[in-house]
Model the fold of this input.
Amino acid sequence: QLVESGGGLVQPGGSLRLSCAVSGIRFSFYDMAWYRQAPGNQRAMVASISRSGSTANYVDSVKGRFTISRDNAKNTVFLQMNSLRPEDTAVYYCKVVTFNSWGQGTQVTVSS
Done:
């Protein structure tokens, strides 16, 4: 089970920290990712992190602004989002990289 939280309405330039609590798997065995889907767009990955947390990858549009991290003791993956832009507005989802299941997502809206 994947439960995302932390979304909300923020002004351009602001920050949010998303969390995703994972249950039902050996969390530390799996790479994790954050995806987002804006209205009219396909769901796309924005960041991924290795099982140990030692390696992270980002889509170019969020590099230097977003940071993915994980706490294997708490079965949680995070997405710290800084310098938010209106184009970051989307529903954000976490995903176990190797499994095709999704949580309910959390809405992020960047608007003045």
Observations:
- The chain has a mean pLDDT of 96.
- The longest strand covers residues 16-22.
